[in-house]
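Input chain follows. Return structure tokens only.
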Amino acid sequence: MQVFYQPETPQLLSLTEEESKHCARVLRHRAGDTIWVTNGRNQLFECQLKDANPTRCSFTIISEKEQAARPYSIHLAIAPTKNTDRLEWMLEKCVELGIDQVSLLLCQHSERVKINPDRLYKKAVSAMKQSLNFQMPRIHEPVGYRAFIDSLADENIHKFIAYVDEEPRSHLMQAAGSHHDYCILIGPEGDFSNEEISVALEHDLKPVSLGPSRLRTETAGLAACHILNLINQVPAPDKTDTSGC
């Protein structure tokens, strides 16, 4: 299924110029063809092309499908990687798995402070359409670490921070629990500073482990996203089932 993205559907019944060009010139759709359009808010529209103009394809809506919203949300706050390709790769995979918000943290050990938000947005749109996961995440502008921590003060969510440490900590799989709203912080290549860790703990963020391996920043972000999705999708074992006894 080829899906087009128009965030203002159903109020606006035409594709963006970029999507119109892809629809008319690359895929060679013509007036009367059936296309699928999502607004990135868990809605998918079956549409009929009225005008296959490569600068502005217009359409009418035939039917609408509602994709069930997840009963939990994931906010990944992560320091941008030095190599932006790695950050883009991680974002793409997180969108495929399911993620609601991504914040870019500027930490004491951050090696990159400038990010091209347009590239990240395009990567997210492409991944959303490819995965048929019709929820477009919010991608926030880079923000200072302390300002972000302060912004969590009034949030009624489960808050975690993952960092390299020899002290034993609960694994995210056990600490998170299912059907909650989550926010997890992942540090830069040089990890969070001791001061940043102290600030997080003072603001009631729970330190967690992502496993025994020391992970790259982008791998840690993807692992956290996968774990939080997994614990909400795997049915809990039926403790009353004694068939195996």
